[in-house]
Design goal:
92 residues; mainly beta; 0% helix
Length: 92
C-alpha cells in the first residue's frame, strides 16, 4: 500500500490551510513547502510517524515566520518511497 497526499483545504486560502496525508505503515516523513523555483520555504513535519491519517495546519509563513506573498506553492511529502507533490494557492 502507498501513502496518500490529499489536496489541501481550503484551496485557494488566505490565512491558513490544512494539508492531509495517510501512511499505511510506520515511515519516515518530510512534508515541506516549496516555491515554484524549487526553493524550500518551510518544513512542516520531519521524522518517523506511525501509520494513520494526519492533518497539518499551515499559516502561509516561511521558516523565519514571515508571511509569504500571494501565489502558487508546492507541498511535497517524502517517505521511504517515491515523493508526492501537490500545488496550493495563497491569496493575501
Amino acid at each position: 500500500e502507498e501513502f496518500t497526499l490529499a489536496q489541501n483545504y481550503p484551496n485557494p486560502f488566505n490565512s491558513s490551510t490544512t494539508l492531509y496525508f495517510t501512511l499505511p505503515q510506520k515511515d519516515f516523513v518530510d512534508l515541506s513547502i516549496y516555491g515554484l523555483s524549487g526553493q524550500k520555504l518551510i518544513t512542516l513535519i520531519r521524522g518517523s510517524r506511525p501509520a494513520g491519517t494526519y492533518a497539518l495546519h499551515w499559516d502561509g509563513r516561511d521558516a523565519r515566520g514571515c508571511d509569504l506573498a500571494s501565489g502558487v506553492y508546492l507541498y511535497r511529502l517524502r517517505t521511504s518511497g517515491p515523493a508526492k507533490t501537490n500545488k496550493l494557492t495563497l491569496l493575501r
